[in-house]
């Protein structure tokens, strides 16, 4: 917003903390993201930890949905956060910090998925995540919803990787086409196309449930 | 950019873009044509079929175990360069990141200021002259200030506080402080 530089050499014996109007230091949890990013770029590990804490749940959600498995998603999240720490000096603020973080975790997921594909295919019945809170539903309905959700998970896992990533970012994370384009590096038209194909394929696979 | 055939969205027989129809159904902004045209109705039937289930999937709680962040921070701390030390006296050293974090904390305690970058540069300790105490340091600090604070007086206070903290808390004499106010913020009304 503005730059006002003040610089100078201290006078001997200058400075009483009592002269300043002191307040309690804000905890890291209350600091704004721009300040945390700059501090992390400056090597402040505590500031980075707060950034990681704020974003980890979102990044983990994406990783679970893209990779289809919690254990792989934990690996992807861990690698992505370490990668983010090592590369945070390259963040220039051209895109939102969250977009930058999404990009790193999506790249990690892509690398992990390719590695996994070379060794063994994803099992078709990997239901991601814990079941939802079903406390108020009948056992029959709980079983039906669980089975339907597991079927959707299998259908998502069967999508081609690029479609799956774009679909997850759009339908589960609620991101816009422009941001998904920035995250995946694909053009906006391609992103729209991939999401549309994914929607059609999932609808087709879930037809038996309706 | 060249697109693969599978990346294109083919228009419906009525000329509308099927992806647009889906997005409009999701946003509740279908126009008259999209509500009545049989092609559009067929295109959005898939949306109606999947919508609730996808929303349930999106709402499922998924949280990483605490061990992930613990391991990440272990790697982060191990990454910090161990040779970044300030000399405090004979056989006594202080990690530079620790000292910088302490000075940021001093700034954070001041009303209307938030510390951002902090750099501490120490004069070279001459070989064989390690017995007399810490060599002096120079501090470069960037801060964000609340709009409306008196920048001249607040930066003077920052300087005083840092010098005092150097002496009393870190045991390192600070000979100079550069302060750059790089951003202003406004309190929400």
Global Rg of chain B: 30 Å
CATH class annotation of the largest domain in chain B? Alpha Beta
The whole-number mean of residue pLDDT values of chain A reads 81
Largest sheet of chain A: none
Looking at the overall shape, the CATH architecture of the largest domain in chain B is 2-Layer Sandwich
Q: CATH topology of the largest domain in chain A, which one?
A: Rna Polymerase Sigma Factor, Chain: A
Q: Describe the strand arrangement of the main beta sheet of chain B, using strand numbers.
A: 3-4-5
Compose a concise summary of this entry.
The complex is a heterodimer of chains A (210) and B (189). Chain A has 210 residues and is mainly α.
What does this structure look like?
The model of chain A is unreliable at 1-22 and 121-135 (pLDDT under 50). Chain A contains 8 helices and 1 strand. Chain A starts with a strand and ends in a 5-residue tail after the last helix. Chain A has helices at residues 33-41, 45-67, 70-87, 97-119, 139-157, 161-172, 177-184, 188-205, and one strand at 4-9. Chain A folds into 2 domains: 1-13 and 24-118, RNA polymerase sigma factor, region 2, helix turn helix motif (Rna Polymerase Sigma Factor, Chain: A), CATH 1.10.1740; 135-210, Arc Repressor Mutant, subunit A (Orthogonal Bundle). Helix content of chain A is 62%, strand content 3%. In chain A, helix 4 packs across helix 7 (177-184) and helix 5 packs across helix 8 (188-205). By secondary structure, chain A is mainly α. Chain B has 189 residues and is of the alpha+beta class. Chain B folds into 2 domains: 18-59, no CATH class; 83-185, GMP Synthetase, Chain A, domain 3, CATH 3.30.300.30. In chain B, the strands form 2 sheets. Chain B has a 3-stranded mixed beta sheet, with helices on one face. Chain B has a two-stranded antiparallel sheet with strand order 1-2. In chain B, helix 1 crosses helix 3 (38-59) and helix 5 crosses helix 6 (151-170). The longest helix of chain B is centred in the N-terminal third of the chain and has 22 residues, at 38-59. The mean pLDDT of chain B is 86. The chains are: A mainly alpha (210), B alpha+beta (189). Chains A and B meet through strand 1, helix 1, helix 2, helix 3 and helix 5 of A and helix 1, helix 3, helix 4, helix 5 and strand 3 of B. Strand 1 of chain A pairs antiparallel with strand 5 (174-185) of chain B.
């Amino acid at each position: 917003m503005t730059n006002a530089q003040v610089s100078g050499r201290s006078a001997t014996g200058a400075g009483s903390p009592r002269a300043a109007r002191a307040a309690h230091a804000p905890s890291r949890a209350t600091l704004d993201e721009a300040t945390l990013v700059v501090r992390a770029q400056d090597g402040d590990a505590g500031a980075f930890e707060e950034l990681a804490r704020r974003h980890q749940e979102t990044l983990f959600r994406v990783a679970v949905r893209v990779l289809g498995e919690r254990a792989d998603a934990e690996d992807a999240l861990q690698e992505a956060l370490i990668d983010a720490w090592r590369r945070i000096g390259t963040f220039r603020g051209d895109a939102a910090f969250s977009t930058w973080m999404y990009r790193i975790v999506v790249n990690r997921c892509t690398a992990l998925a390719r590695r996994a594909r070379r060794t063994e295919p994803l099992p078709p019945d990997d239901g991601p995540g814990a079941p939802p809170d079903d406390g108020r539903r009948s056992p029959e309905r709980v079983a039906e919803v669980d089975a339907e959700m597991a079927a959707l998970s299998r259908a998502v896992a069967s999508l081609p990787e690029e479609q799956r990533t774009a679909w997850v970012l759009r339908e589960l994370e609620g991101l816009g086409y422009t941001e998904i384009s920035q995250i995946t590096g694909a053009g906006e038209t391609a992103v729209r196309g991939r999401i549309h194909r994914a929607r059609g394929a999932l609808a087709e696979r879930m037809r038996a449930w309706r | 950019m060249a697109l693969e055939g599978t990346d294109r969205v083919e228009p419906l027989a009525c000329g509308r873009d099927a992806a647009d129809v889906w997005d409009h159904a999701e946003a509740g902004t279908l126009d008259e044509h999209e509500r009545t045209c049989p092609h559009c109705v067929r295109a959005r039937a898939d949306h109606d079929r999947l919508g609730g289930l996808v929303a349930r999937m999106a709402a499922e709680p998924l949280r990483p175990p605490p061990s992930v962040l613990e391991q990440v921070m272990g790697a982060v701390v191990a990454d910090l360069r161990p040779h970044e030390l300030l000399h405090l006296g004979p056989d006594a050293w202080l990690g530079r990141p620790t000292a910088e974090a302490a000075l940021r904390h001093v700034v954070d305690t001041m009303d209307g200021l938030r510390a951002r970058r902090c750099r501490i540069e120490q004069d070279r300790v001459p070989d064989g002259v390690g017995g007399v105490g810490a060599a002096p340091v120079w501090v470069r600090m960037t801060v964000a200030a609340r709009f409306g604070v008196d920048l001249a007086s607040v930066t003077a206070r920052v300087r005083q506080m840092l010098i005092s903290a150097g002496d009393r808390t870190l045991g390192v004499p600070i000979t100079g402080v550069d302060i750059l106010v790089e951003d202003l913020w406004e309190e929400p009304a």
